[in-house]
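User: Hey, my collaborator sent me this sequence without any context and asked if I could get a structure. I don't really work with proteins. Can you help?
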Amino acid sequence: KIAGDAFLTGVFYDGKDLRQVRRWTRNTPVEVLLALELGHPPEFDGVKCTDCGKRFGTENDHLVPHCAGGPASCDNLEPRCWSCHRAKTEKDRRAGKLTPRAPDEERGPP
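Assistant: No problem. I've predicted the 3D structure and written it out in structure-token form, which is a compact way to encode the shape of the chain:
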């Protein structure tokens, strides 16, 4: 498995103008991620880190780690800023929650 959580950004430039930027991620199209970051209509007040309340640069963190069998569903995600996400990952690692399990038929491959 190489770079399972990697993303790819493509920039299309014709020599004069930037024509298009496209970003591809492992599971969720970037357009969907950006729409989710806006928050719920009609307020569109954005998302904030579950732990510290930071409003920008949040990432989706799996409540039950993906490698430990956690589902790839919205119910298993919480927004966290990079530093809080890292701290929770370390806490999960110390608690033994990041031990990979064999993929099962219901969950499928990562």
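In plain terms: Residues 10 and 16 are 17 Å apart (CA to CA). You can pass these tokens on to your collaborator as they are.
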